[in-house]
Please model this.
Amino acid sequence: MPARVTGAAAGALLALTAVAAAPAQAAGYRYWSFWESDGGKPWTYATQGPATARPADGDALGFRFAISNGTDDTSLPSVAPDFPGICGGVEKKDGTKRIAVVVDFGGPADAPPGEAPPKKLIKVGCAEVREDATGAEALAAVAKPLRYDGSAMLCGIAGYPAHGCGEQVTEKTPASKTPASAGPTASTAAEGSGGGPSFGVLVGGAAVLALGGAAIWKARRRA
Model:
């Protein structure tokens, strides 16, 4: 093969390698995640929203504001679900239940532009609510005001943040680290790559190969 043909092929390969190695865009979400603990067990990601969840006496609810790429890597509340420590001094009354509530406001890195988390980053309290009360009612008993959007998604706790609700946040990550993508709830459709290269990388690679093939074809004609 003529040297100029070999060079064209090598150039196409190098260009494709550069495209594949370029930083990828990972889609995350800034939102309040919701966690549950049944009878002192470790935090588990809730499978339903606080407006429909109905915890039992002795349970704990956790809320953490953070930027996350999915439920698996969402930051847990930084305080353990310690029902005895939070509600130990509260006696159960007839017709009511006691729910330990932990609210973790996250840190400055998670704050929306122009906002800052409260100076006291952790708020805990024991909610005394009626026996059929929801998780949202238990939260309101400890950390109101609460803010919801039109679809009943929890947007703000104790006035934080003042604006926004589950907005997407895009950040650059190395292509070698494939990010998980998820929305504020488990039912949100994933956006971004799975286990393979992103659509943009594939398209870019195809374009590079097409250009390389055209160069080779022209070089062969000249030869």
Residues 199-222 form the longest helix (24 residues). Residues 94 and 103 are 27 Å apart (CA to CA). Confidence is low (pLDDT under 50) at residues 1-24, 172-223.
